[in-house]
Specification:
The chain is built from 6 helices and 13 strands. It is an alpha/beta fold and 228 residues long. The strands form 3 sheets. A 6-stranded mixed β-sheet has the order 2-1-3-6-12-13. A 4-stranded antiparallel β-sheet has the order 8-9-7-10. β12 and β13 form a beta hairpin. The structure holds ribulose-5-phosphate (5RP).
C-alpha cells in the first residue's frame, strides 16, 4: 500500500468520524494532501453540515469546487471539530504543522474547535517532535532578528523559498516562513510559548496548546482511532 492510499484510507475514516456529529453544524477543515483526501471523501455528504470554515486559500478553493459552503470565521462562534493533517505527532498529540505553509490559519481554526481530529499515516508518528524542521511564520522585515533568536535555541534556520525558485514562499497572510531544523522538542508547550514571544513571529507551527484530541492513523493494517 503506498502513501497516497494510506492518506485516502484515513480521509475516509475521518469522513465517517465527522458524520457521527449532529447535523447542521459548521466544520473546521485543514490543509494539505491528507486533508484534501478528507474533503474529497466528505463531498457527497456536504449537506450534513451547515457550512465549513477553511484554513487556507487552497482548501477554500477545493471546498467551493465541491459545493461546500465556506463561512468567514468571524461569523462563526464555535466548531464541534477541526480535521487536519500533521507533519509530526507525538504520543501526547502535540504536533508540528505548517509543512504546507498554512499554520497560522490552521491554529486559529483549531482554537475555535471543541476537538482537533488529526489524520495522518503512521510515518508521521514520532516519540519526540523535531525531526521535521519546525515552521515559523514571520513578518518579513523581522527575518534577521527572528533568525538570530531561533539560532539561540539551537536550531539551524532557513528561509523557505518557492519550490524551484529563489524568491521567498509567501503565505496567505503575506508572511514568510523560517524552517528550523535540528530541534529536539522535549517540552512542546514551553517551546511554543517561548517562540511565540519573539517579536516578529506570527505563529510557530508547534501545536501543543491546540493539540490533537483524536488521532486517526493509517497503516497497511487499517486505521486506528486513538483518543489523546
Ligand atoms: C499544512 C499542514 C499540513 O497539515 C501538514 O503539512 C501535513 O500535510 P500532508 O497531509 O500533505 O502530509 O500543516 O500547513
Amino acid at each position: 500500500m503506498n502513501q497516497d492510499q494510506l492518506k485516502q484510507m484515513v480521509g475516509e475514516a475521518a469522513r465517517d468520524e465527522v458524520l457521527k456529529l449532529a447535523p447542521g453544524q459548521v466544520l473546521g477543515v485543514g490543509t494539505g494532501s491528507t486533508a484534501n483526501c478528507f474533503i474529497d471523501a466528505l463531498a457527497p455528504h456536504k449537506d450534513h453540515f451547515a457550512g465549513t470554515v477553511s484554513s487556507s486559500n487552497a482548501t477554500t478553493e477545493r471546498l467551493l469546487k465541491h459545493g461546500f459552503k465556506v463561512l468567514n470565521p468571524n461569523d462563526v462562534t464555535g466548531l464541534p471539530a477541526y480535521v487536519d493533517g500533521a507533519d509530526e505527532i507525538d504520543p501526547a498529540g502535540h504536533m508540528i504543522k505548517g509543512g504546507g505553509g498554512a499554520l497560522t490559519r490552521e491554529k486559529i481554526i483549531a482554537s475555535m474547535a471543541k476537538q482537533f481530529i488529526c489524520i495522518c499515516d503512521s510515518s508521521k508518528q514520532v516519540p519526540v517532535l523535531g525531526n521535521f524542521a519546525l515552521p515559523v511564520e514571520i513578518i518579513p522585515l523581522a527575518q534577521g532578528v527572528v533568525t538570530r533568536e531561533l539560532e539561540k535555541l539551537g536550531g539551524k534556520v532557513s528561509l523557505r523559498l518557492v519550490k524551484g525558485a529563489q524568491e521567498p514562499f509567501v503565505t496567505d497572510n503575506s508572511g514568510w516562513i523560517l524552517d528550523v531544523a535540528g530541534l529536539k522538542i522535549a517540552d512542546p508547550k514551553s517551546m511554543e510559548s517561548q517562540i511565540n514571544q519573539i517579536a516578529g513571529v506570527i505563529t510557530v507551527g508547534l501545536f501543543a496548546k491546540e493539540k490533537a484530541n483524536i488521532l486517526l492513523v493509517s497503516n497497511a493494517a487499517g486505521v486506528a482511532r486513538i483518543i489523546l
